[in-house]
Every structure is written in structure tokens, then in C-alpha cells.
Model the fold of this input.
Amino acid sequence: MARKPAPAERSTAPVRKAAVIGGNRIPFGKAGGAYASAANLDMLTAALTGLVARFALQGERIGDVAGGAVLKHSRDFNLTREAVLGSGLDPHTSAFDTQRACGTSVEAVTAIANKIALGQIETGIAAGTDSTSDAPIVVSDRLRRTLMKLSRSKSVAEKVKLVGSLRPGDLAPVAPSVNEPRTGMSMGEHQAITTRRWSITREAQDEVALASHQNLARAYDDGLFDDLITPFRGLTRDQSLRPDTSAEKLAKLTPVFGTSSPGATMTAGNSTPLSDGAAAVLLGTDEWAAERGLPVLAHVVDAEAAAVDFVHGAEGLLMGGAYAVPRLLARQGLGLEDFTFIEIHEAFASTVLTTVAAWADEEFMQTKVHLPALGELDRSKLNVAGSSLAAGHPFAATGARIVATLATLLRRAKDAEPDEPARGLISVCAAGGQAVAMILEAPAAAKDGDR
Amino acid sequence: MAEQTLAAVPSLSSLYANALGRSARLMVRPLTQSTTLPDVVYRVADVPVDAEQLVSYQRVLGDVAASDRLPAGFVHVLGFPVAMAVMAREDFPLPLLGMVHVANRVDQLRALHIGEALEVRAWAEHLAAHRKGTQVELVVEVTGSATDGVAWRGRSTYLARGRTLPGLPAAPETPSAGTAWGQKLPQPTAQWHLGADTGRRYAEVSGDRNPIHMGSVPARLFGFKRAIAHGMYTAARALTAAVTGGAEVFSWDVTFGKPVLLPGRVAFAVRPAGGSGVSEGTAAGVEYLGWNARSGARHFSGSVTPLR
Done:
């Protein structure tokens, strides 16, 4: 009988690093725009089908697929598995749904990468999709509870009493609220408070927004997205992208958040637009990639999640990145200067700025994060191919967009300068005071016969 | 004090109806009774807790997850009619209708749970002269199934405006709502969007159908422009928002300021007790403040302090 390795031997075996092999997404649409009639399942299937075509995975059984959506219809309980069945992958490919608000597909990448690292699977796909145009509108809580009681009630008198308890207002449909359930405030209202607390100016925010549009437009012109995007429903570029916007145009916009007190700075121009879209990332072992002649763009090095107490006002809702990133860097013994590129999700331009300011603030870092400050960030490394302000932000798709884009950028950087390390850092804030951070690193390019 | 056992928790509706009748009678024949509080403790044994009512209460209060633990505000709802019955007595020296709830304190010594047989005792004490009238405290004590004594004690302070009784001690001066927060309003940590039906919804789950909460027409009869939110609704929402996780043993204070007119938007802030520091954590308890998001008028303030 073949002897299985003892647990002790297994635990000392080096953990494999999962490789990001490639990505595919559809261009992101504006709410009510090009994908107004597309559902989450349509978009996720389109992103997966594009990935299958790009990497010749037709009929292949992938180890596992993780995906999700933030605004999700209850009928989509098996959204990712349904998308797999329509994608051209082997129908024996398993899939599961996952969700961590705007960090959903970073979390999906982490889950798949961990399975690969532990030797449970050889390859996997992480994905996300969201539609604000086809949001799951539901009946009111009172109508739903009354309907459920009606179906359980036995006597006519009881039914009549239940129907009589309804008020006209209970019959109105309810759109999903993106307000925080515990505070009743929108993300924008929360971030407006954080923006004030850190004294972030309107000009600084508009500068981030302008750079996002310019960088994304340049990345399209440079052909970066030729390997990353498959057109969908007539859209070839992100619908929110305005290559011709200017500081003057952004300066003209009226503030929309934090307007209850004077000096509001957050506008539609420096806040993320509501969007529709989907994105997917292909991961695997180096060997699995080599067998198929596929590249290893980057390895998933490590990931960290954090959450803050925004309910009691102790911290800003979207400041999780100020905690997740320092903890992650401390564990890896790295500093900001060790990274070639840094991706901070632009929920709002000011989220980027408050996060960066917090990393550099010695007092904040000592008293709240209990770690040394990270120092000033070299802005030339930040969101070099644009981010959510220009691309749009279909909540659960954003993480997969960032991972695929960053891995591609790192591969190029490593190939250009093979002797320099090419590391990338990701920070994505999420509802509920959460954030996820991740480190990617491009290995030296594989040569034939290397292994 | 003599203890008198009631067969069941009195109906608030009939207490209000009686009080209306009494007010009408008093218009004809002015009050000539004693100036002391009734020397009686009302007791109701085996107060039932209705699971449906509990869940409805939790939903209305915006508890994100309803649990089997009775919220401290819900226990107030259970005991309130017994206190009302004391105030509705013919020999109670102040008129029930028109009394204003100015402050409330609850000491929760242990959490009560659904399925416990509750016993409620209620009495009035500390009748005192206030510069605006006469104030009185209604005390409610609730015990659960265990033989560990009082689990919950509430002390509600009411003011009968413009009514003076001879020979009363002066009530201690208490700071008005929000004094501890200073002049400048803080940044809100939450916003409450209160619909026009907020009073009716809370009335449904609390049984407190005082006309001033039910709509603008009845509210106008009592001198309010529009319906006003129940004070204990705002205080209980503040408790829900202020307490983290499993706090079970605490003292919960509230002082009421300007009433919340419905519909309305209430800005709400919570901070660690004892000042503005944000990083000290909430181990020593929290302070909270509610104010009108537009005018800045202070509706209520209070604190939640862990006991033991």
C-alpha cells in the first residue's frame, strides 16, 4: 500500500505560489447605458466566455471558479456556476459564489490562489460582476412579511385582517439601498466626513480624477487592454472614460456629498459613477501555465483584510486600506518603496488621498494601526493605467479588473528590467468599513527547459 | 408602600380614554385632592412576552439582526402600562395627559430573554417642584424567571408643565440635552430619515397610542405643529446604534430636548465616554447626541455605561 505523507511532512512542504495567468473583462458601462438590459448572469458569462476564448479553455475542466455580485437577485443564488455552464468550460467545472462588497473579486482571487497554493487545485478562475441598471428591486419588508403570513394563515378572518393591515406605502417597490444599514448614510456622506477630517482639498481630488481619465486613455492607446478586454454589446471602451476632460471642466462641477456644511468638495467628477460590468482572472500553478504555453504574469504573494469601527465614528467608513496595507507590508517585511506599481481603488478620489495621507501620518499609524508610518507615496507609481473614476466601478468586478491589469503591468516591467523586482500592491475599500489588500510579484520570465 | 397585584397588564388605550374623560371632568370641577403621591406599588406577575411583538419592535427600531434577547427599550414598553396605571389613578396629583417625558434612566442588571416569566412592579416617587411646573419619577422594576432579583430597573422623569403644588422640595437642576457636547455640533456618525408614519409604527409595537404621536391632526389638539416621535423611540434607536455587540449589563441614560417633528431627519453622533478622543475605544461606555439635521436643535442626549 502506498504510504501517504504524514501531516508533519506535508506541513513543512513549501507552499506553492499561485500565478496570475491572464484576465478578461468586458468594457464597463454607465448605469442605464450600454448594458441597461444586461443582467449579472449575462455579463459574467460574457467575461468568462471571453477568458475561455483568450486562453483556449474550451471543454477544459478548471479546478474551481469563484465569483460574485454585490447587488444580487435572489434567483441568482448559483450565479457563478450558472455562468460557468454557459461559458464553454467543461460542465464538470465546479463554482461557488462569494461576496465581500467592493472587495468581492479580490477576495475571490485570494480564495482561488489559496486553494492553488495548498495544492487543492491546479488552476482556477476568480470573477465578479455587478449591474446597477438591473438592480434587484423587491417588495417592501412589510408587504413581504404580510404575504408570508398570509400563505401560512388558515382562516379567512385572519387573511382579511392581514390584508387590512397593509398601507398603500407598503405596496411600493423597494430598490436596494447602498446606504450603510447601521448608519443610514451613503458612502459619499461617510467619505465627506473623512475628507474633512483629513483636510483634503477639492483641487487635490480633481487632480486624482483627471489623472485617472488621462492614464486610462493612455493605457487604451498603448494597447494595454488588447489582452484584457473583450467588447460586449457594442462597447469597446469603458463608457465613463472621458479622455478630453480637463481640470477646468472638473472644477465646474457642483459638490454632491457633504453639502450640509459649507466647503463641500466631492463632486460627480471625483466620485465613482454607478456602473455595469464583469471581469475575470485566470490563475494556476506555473506548471499548469507552462504545459499550455501560457505566461505567468505575476504571483499572488499575500493578502490581508481589515475592518474599522465606523459605526461609533472612531474611523471613516472607507479607511480600511489604511489598516490592511500596513499590516500586510509588515508581515512581508516590505515598504512602499519596494513596489513598482500601487493600485488604490478610486471609490472616491478622496478615498485614495485619505488612505495615502494616513499611511504617511506617524501619529495616526502609531495610535490607531500600531505600526510605523509607511512614508510618502511616490505618486508616479499610483494607478498608472487609470482606476475606477475613469473605468467605472461595477462593485464585484473591480477587484478582478485591478488584479489582471496590475499583473499585466508587472509582467511588462519585469521583462523590461529583468534584474529589478517587479512588485505591485492593491488596496480596495469596501462597504461595512472593510478593505482588502494584496501583493503581486512578477517572477523572471520562464525560459524553455527552465523547469 | 402597600402592594396591589393587578390581574394583567392594563390596556394603554383604556388608560388614555379614562385620562381623557378625567381631563374633561377636571375642566368642569378643578382638582382639589391631596398633593402627595399614591402610596401604592402596582404589581403584575407573569407578564407575557409575545415573540411576534418582539420581532416587530426590533424591526421598527432598526435592529439589523433581531435576537431572542429583550432589548432594554422593549422591557420599558412591557412595563410602561403598569406605570401608566399608577399615573391614571384618581388620587394621582398630576394630570396624565400633557405630561412631558424629560429624562429616562434604565439600569439593566442582566439581559432578559424571550420565554422568561416576567414580573413587573411600578410606583411613583420623588414628587418635586421644577421651575417650569412639577416633576415626578415613575419607577418600574422587572424580574425574570431566575431568582436573581431585579434584572431591569427603569426610572422615567415626567414634567407637568405649569402645575404647581404646595410644599414640595425643589428638584435638582439637571443640564439640558446635549450640554456635555458643548456649543459646536459634532460630525454625525449616522442619519435617521424618519417618515411621517414613525409615530404610528412605534405605537403599533409599543401600544403607546398617545395622540401626539399619531398624526398631525391629533397632535395639533395638544399644541404641536405636527406629530412628534416617541421619546423612547429615539432613545431606543440611540441605544441600538451606540452599543457594540453583546453589551448586556449597562446603565442607559437619556435627557430629552426639543421634540422630533415628523417627518424629519435626525443627525446622530456617538463617541467614547468622557470626551472627544476617538481612539480610546468604547470600554468605558459611550455618549450620544441627536439633533435636527437642518436647524441644529438638540433632540436628546445620553450615555450608555457598562455596569460592574
